[in-house]
Write the structure tokens for this entry.
Amino acid sequence: MATINAPVAGLPIEARPYAPADRLPDPSPPTGVSTEAYNPSQALFGDQPAGITRAVRSAGRLVANFASGQWTLGPGAGTLTQGYSGFDSAGNVVGVRSRTGQPEMVQLTIGGADNAINRLTLSSPATNLLTKALAGKFGLWVHIASQPGYQVGGSLAGVMEVELTTNASRFYSNGLVVGFNSNQLREGWNFLKFVQRDTAAYRSGAPTTEYHPFGVVAACYGTGVDANIVDAPLTELRINVSNMAGATLTFDSIWTGFDSIAQLVLGCDAAGSDLLQHGLPSFTQYGWKGYFAIPGRIWTSGSYTVSDWSALPVNAMALYRQHGWDCVNHSTNHIPVGALASAGAVDYEVTAVQAQYANAGLLRGAEFYASPQSSSSRLAEAVIKNRGFKAQRHARKWNVSVTPWGLDNPHHIGAIDFGSATAGGISSTTGTAAGSVAGWQTFTKLQRFVDTLIDYGDTAFPFWHGITTLGDSGLGNDLTGDNLLITKSAFEKFMAYIKMKEDAGLIRVRDGMTGFYYGVGR
């Protein structure tokens, strides 16, 4: 594991040199990142640094690809294009290229009024299933263009289901269905992952319940006798797409056997006295570094234009910077940026405050953005991406998958506000019933979050706003009555549980956004 050297005399804390042995110097790294930490010649496709894949332990095995003639459409009125590559005959890029390097893909274009099911079924599965033993997990690479509802003022829609069976006659009546709803699906690339562990939870009248990241909706059909993909080989699968009017989906490949260590990137969207009194001590005790995302101001009324920047809390920010924390852009006014219909207005929200951060010497983490109120849109995402930000933190799909090809969608990284008692939480499976448990805020729910994250081997970005001692029994399961506050005992128990799992080698706490993205630090 890479180590952090002592600061070089005369250089600010952001300029501490990292010294991983597998990186070469680069003359022009991103702002605030040392030369040894980043080298474009060692980057992945799409400009993601190779270090972002540090968590990957196994690339896995290909279950199926989408080569010509292997998939059929029906039912469905969509247009299916076989042999799609994203290139023209001269090698020019004219569309979506394979994320994993497949020579051919399948593209499904759905009509603008078509919300009915469009189903893709793998033909001749005896030969076209390249890996039948899934050992409980699969991941589907799919690109979504024109996702319904991602426009300004839109309401997100769309569901994708993967139906699987282990029945020798390839019947689905007692098989497994795994759905990914709009809490998992994002515009752009998606690596949609499912991990089955407790096979008893997928039988009719199940005695146990299994948990999944929010938006992963799984259950069995019928008795569930053919839903066990841990022990029995797969005999067939199909993909259903519904409520996706106007979208274009490009299917790349399906995988199993992949493996990554779970990771946490911890941050705070405020810098009040409670962070200094209760939050920072835990991080210092455990040797962690986090990030803070503080807006230029909290807008309440009047013009969005800030004329007086003297109130920016740079002194508080500088304190956490000295502890090695990142300063992540959190907008100028802390308004729902996804609701802004003007590209210029979106641009103002990130560029105006960025200058103030830079002038205050808050450079580490400057290339990352955390959306206020987790609000985004197709327009906002594009404007912020085109400003040069490397990654954007929003809300959907809080289980962020790190693959050998990097992040599937760095401009839509999911996160959880773990002080909220009402936000989307955890999905559940009990036989034929798929459900969910809403909210966080209590240690019981946060403990379940960590356990599920470890089971999935994904990365999560839990953040908080404020820590309170009011009404705190010390047990960690008190509700605060405020979705921006968590009790001190719940916070400390959550941190201690993470540390216990880290010491057991089951999870890695990264050094803020910078440590995660560039693969440096602890």
In short: Residues 1-28, 34-38 have pLDDT under 50 and may be disordered.
